[in-house]
């Protein structure tokens, strides 16, 4: 069993040992996320929650930059298009830039906005109307997308607070964060709910990976989970070559 599979199974057993009960599990349809979600589901006590896959939870799409090494700096004599035509992919630093056929960070944030409105808000409204204090939703996705999702949630909080973008360091493989999301009672009782819906957001855990303490890392990489042709694998892109 490869390291990636061991990490996923360890996470599932950790949640089981802590008695965590999920009401629903949403996952990206890419293999690593599905494997992790299935591991959580496998060790979940009965009744097991619904398991729903969504394309909107996929990792950022780098388009033609997928799997390509990148340059730290740009040749000032070349336009971005000329770089791409030569198979050169300079590191993108702004939120609006994207590689041909890919997504920018702002594109990713807009996709995260859709996930908040289509997945998270309905769960929050259901839990609030039923006065359920322990309504747990697992969202199994990928590092860059999860970062944007958390930032989008924080921006929905009219009270402010949270972590600035530059302060978020991402997640270890199968690491998890916990975000408590609620709604003001007066918003819930209003006859007309505004959009985007303001939310009460509080981050209580960031990049928890206690479950990995007992996992021995296998030599040669992340593990033996088979390659998924749909996977937007950023490791190849971030394998830097000299400028």
TrEMBL record:
- Entry keywords, A to Z: Hydrolase
Checking Pfam families in the record gives: His_Phos_1
Look up the record and report any one GO term of the cellular component aspect. cytosol
* InterPro entries, sorted: His_Pase_superF_clade-1, His_PPase_superfam, Phosphoglycerate_Mutase
Where is substrate bound in this sequence? 32
TM region positions = none
- Protein's GO biological process: negative regulation of glycolytic process; regulation of pentose-phosphate shunt
Q: What GO terms are given for molecular function?
A: fructose-2,6-bisphosphate 2-phosphatase activity
Q: Which CDD domains match?
A: HP_PGM_like (cd07067)
The protein's name is Phosphoglycerate mutase-like protein
Give the taxonomic lineage as stored in the record: Eukaryota, Fungi, Dikarya, Basidiomycota, Agaricomycotina
């Amino acid at each position: 069993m490869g390291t990636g599979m061991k990490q996923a199974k360890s996470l599932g057993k950790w949640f089981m040992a802590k008695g965590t009960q999920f009401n629903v599990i949403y996952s990206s349809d890419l293999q690593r996320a599905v494997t992790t979600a299935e591991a959580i589901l496998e060790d979940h006590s009965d009744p097991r929650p619904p398991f729903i896959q969504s394309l909107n939870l996929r990792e950022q799409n780098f388009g033609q930059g997928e799997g390509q090494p990148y340059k730290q700096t740009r040749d000032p004599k070349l336009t971005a298009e000329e770089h791409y035509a030569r198979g050169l992919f300079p590191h993108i630093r702004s939120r609006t830039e994207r590689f041909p056929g890919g997504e920018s960070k702002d594109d990713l944030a807009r996709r995260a906005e859709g996930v908040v409105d289509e997945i998270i808000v309905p769960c929050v409204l259901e839990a609030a109307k039923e006065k359920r204090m322990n309504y747990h939703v697992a969202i199994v996705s990928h590092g860059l997308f999860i970062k944007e999702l958390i930032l989008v949630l924080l921006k929905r909080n009219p009270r402010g607070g949270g972590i600035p973008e530059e302060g978020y360091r991402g997640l270890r493989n199968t690491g998890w964060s916990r975000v408590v999301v609620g709604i003001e009672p007066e918003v819930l009782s209003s006859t007309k709910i505004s959009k985007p819906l303001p939310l009460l957001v509080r981050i209580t855990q960031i990049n928890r990976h206690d479950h990995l303490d007992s996992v021995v890392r296998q030599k040669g990489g992340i593990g033996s989970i088979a390659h998924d042709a749909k996977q937007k694998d950023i490791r190849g892109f971030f394998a830097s070559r000299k400028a």
